[in-house]
């Protein structure tokens, strides 16, 4: 199995190049097929001994729309994602810098969450950054409260930015958004996620398969100059995003816009747990089903880290991978 690895703002992306064509008339159908038939591929290439608990992956596919350039499926330690912002930035960089995709000003990408338009910026033969226009994003619920075991009542916002996230002020639960609190962020983030999942539904207006809570995002003040905030995202089965989380920043842009704190076109710079940054902005107002929404743009940079040729021996008892949690 051949892959190209990259990272966007520190978060890994393993681009799987040798997967067989995935059936499906839509990307949602392809995702369903992959969940049901290709999970061994996911665990073999993302879990140990070839990967690790926080590895993230992408499989480019043929487009499913007449004007699409490609499709993409994203995968992680829990399963198959609906959208991934750092993945769009890294995938675009990989495809163009390796020559798999000819240079163009826009790449129209079909994701399970909808159409993504990626706009790479050129610096010689390199991609200096990628700005992508995301799917409509919206604040689903503001100033809600949930009772979390061991914490009591916790106030949260719920928003969609390609996936649903619950947003919690880190100070409200006694956390600092630093690498030293990594394990605490995972443990409390998963507790909050499970509590919200058991107390309410996050319903996508069009796709039932996208109607689930993906993760908890802790928010707090920036620790570096020139940033507006810091996000730490705990998603899937306890993964921690090393980047500021592209879909998470999209949801955050929708929340800030809904609260009247962010005007269209105004940059919103968000740090990650390791201090790397994405810049988000609301491009324009829209509606998405019954929801008032914005179309966000997220910009960040990625770097290729290597090319792999993985071998799966038929007599290897660990060929399907394993994970320690």
Named CATH topology of the largest domain:
Diaminopimelate Epimerase, Chain A, domain 1
The residue ranges in which pLDDT falls below 50 over 5 or more consecutive positions are: none
**Compute the gyration radius: what is it?**
19 Å
> What can be said about the biggest beta sheet?
17 strands, mixed
First-to-last CA distance: 26 Å
Number of domains: 2
**Tally of separate helices:** 5
**Based on the structure, what is the oligomeric state of the protein chains?**
single chain
Tell me the β content. Answer: 35-45%
- Helical amount: 10-25%
- Secondary structural class: alpha+beta
CATH class of the largest domain: Alpha Beta
CATH homologous superfamily assignment of the largest domain:
Diaminopimelate Epimerase, Chain A, domain 1
Name the shape in a single word. Answer: globular
The total strand number stands at 17
Mean pLDDT: 97
Helix-strand string: EEHHEEHEEEEEEHEEEHEEEE
CATH architecture annotation name of the largest domain: Roll
